Amino acid sequence: MAGKQPTGSDEQTSEEHLRTAFHRSVDEGAARLDRDWIELIATGLVGGMDLGLGILAMLVVEHATGSHMLGALAFTTGFLALTLGKSELFTENFLVPVAAVLARKATVLAMVRLWFVTAVMNLVGGWLFAWLFVLGLPRLHATALETAAVYPSWSYSRALALGVLGGIAITLMTWMERGAESEFGRIAAVSAIAFLLAAAPLNHVIVGSLEMFTAMHTGAASYGYGEWARVAALGGIANMVGGLLFVTTLRFAQVGAEKIRAEQAGRGEAD
After folding, report:
1. Which fold has domain 13-264?
2. HEC string of the chain?
3. pLDDT tens digit string along 141-177?
4. Where are the domains of the chain?
5. What percent of the chain has pLDDT over 90?
6. pTM (2 decimals)?
C-alpha cells in the first residue's frame, strides 16, 4: 500500500511555518539588538545565574542519587529559567540576531556587541552564582569536582567535535522555540535539548565554564584559570561553527532567498 503523499495544503502549511519562524526570529532579533547597555548587561548577568541554577540542581540530584541521567534531567531547570525568565545565553544568539541582520533590521556591529557583552556577563553571573552555592553547600564539592573534570580531560579533536555538536543543539533549540505554536511546545524543545546537553555531555562554552568555575571555587581543582581559558576558547569557537554554519546557514537556506528579500523589503511580498 502506497504511503500518503503530501498535499498542496501540507506544503503550504510547511512554508507558512518556516515563514512564521523566520518572522519571529527577525522581530525578536531586532529587539535584542536594540537594547541599551544597562539592559544588555543585566540580561547577560541574569542568564548566567539562571544557568547556574540548573548546574546547582544537577549537582544536588547527582549527589543524592549517584545518577548522571537524573542529574541531566534536573539540569533542565536552568534552561527553563532562561526561557520563562526571558534571559539568554551567548550561544542563543547565533540565529535570532543573525536573522535581524540578514533582514537589514540591525547592523553587524550591534550583533558583535550583543555577542561579546552577553558572553562576558553570562560568565560573570555564573561565576558569582557558583561561588555562592559552593560556599553554602560544601557537601556538593566532590560531585562538582567529578562533573567538571571531564572538560580539561578531552583531547583537542574531541573538544572541538563535541563543541560543534553543542552549538548545533543550542541553535536548533532556538529555531524550535521560534517555530513552536504553544508555550508547551517551547518548554518541550528547551527541556529536550538541555537534557541532551548535560547527559552526553556536549561541549558548551558557558555550561562548561560554569562547571569548571564551580570546581575551582572548591579550592581542590587540579587546574586553574589558564586551563579554563583554553577549554573555553575551544568550546566557544566550536559552538560558533556548529551554530552558525550547520544550523543558521542551512535554516536560512531552507527559508529561501525570496522570503528573505521580502523581509528586507518590509514583508509586503511575503504577506
Report:
1. Glycerol uptake facilitator protein (1.20.1080)
2. CCCCCCCHHHHHHHHHHHHHHHHHHHHHHHHHHCCCHHHHHHHHHHHHHHHHHHHHHHHHHHHHHCCHHHHHHHHHHHHHHHHHCCCCCHHHHHCHHHHHHHCCCCCHHHHHHHHHHHHHHHHHHHHHHHHHHHHHCHHHHHHHHHHHCHHHHCCHHHHHHHHHHHHHHHHHHHHHHHHCCCHHHHHHHHHHHHHHHHHCCCCCHHHHHHHHHHHHHCCCCCCCHHHHHHHHHHHHHHHHHHHHHHHHHHHHHHHCHHHHHHHHCCCCCCC
3. 999 999 999 999 999 999 999 999 999 999 999 989 8
4. 13-264
5. 78
6. 0.89
